[in-house]
Amino acid sequence: MSPTALEVSQQVPEVRPAAKLSTAEFRVGRPEIVGPEKPETPFPIILVGRVQRGFGRGGKDLGCPTANLPDESIIPMSSIANTGVYYGYAQVVTPSGDSTPMHPRDNGVLPMVMSLGWNPFYKNEKLTAEIHIMHEFDKDFYGFEMRAVVLGYIRPELDYTSREALIDDIEFDKQVALNCLERPEYRKYAQDPHFDLRCSVDTQI
């Protein structure tokens, strides 16, 4: 059995397995829907944490803004899952007392794709979990609570020879995620109790 993302992160970088290189053949042969008809172990995986600033490359370089979760909040996933790209639902929650609350449509439960790994194209040295919510937000939400339910695996973490190839795969990942979440047994997780706004991260951590 391959090591989990957390186990790999505990290895020295010199012995960490290198990500495979994405090829044109891989992109051409990708399926538009992946996984079983309902989530299977280890899914669903529940995550919660406050959004922190990352490298700022997702939106600027790739046209895919991402939200980074703190190290401690990704352990429920990194301790049981491999690196790669995943899909599910996520929700951003306005902190109580915030002077500029988000629009209600921005606090909804929304489809997301998530990268767990080192972003080998950018040669990161630290394991990160970056979530892209497929929605146009009216404002930044650094420091806000994010809740996520991870429901399935799309593909392994890959390295790239060009930014354009990486962008192509990201756009395909988004469509795969949307296709997968259309299945009834996945759609129902948009109503998961984890997204109950009456429960605050302040009482969970």
TrEMBL record:
Enzyme class, spelled out: transferase
Report keywords, A-Z: ATP-binding, Flavoprotein, FMN, Nucleotide-binding, Transferase
Assigned EC number = 2.7.1.26
Q: Which GO terms describe its cellular component?
A: mitochondrion
Enumerate the InterPro entries for this protein: Riboflavin_kinase (IPR023468), Riboflavin_kinase_bac/euk (IPR015865), Riboflavin_kinase_dom_sf (IPR023465)
Residue span, Riboflavin kinase domain: 40-182
Q: Which GO terms describe its molecular function?
A: ATP binding; riboflavin kinase activity
Protein family per UniProt: Belongs to the flavokinase family.
Would the keyword Mitochondrion be found if you checked this record's keyword annotation?
no
State a single Pfam family of this protein. Flavokinase
Protein name per UniProt: Riboflavin kinase
Entry-linked Gene3D superfamilies? Riboflavin kinase-like
Q: What's any GO biological process attached to this entry?
A: FMN biosynthetic process
Q: Which PANTHER family match?
A: RIBOFLAVIN KINASE, RIBOFLAVIN KINASE/FMN ADENYLYLTRANSFERASE
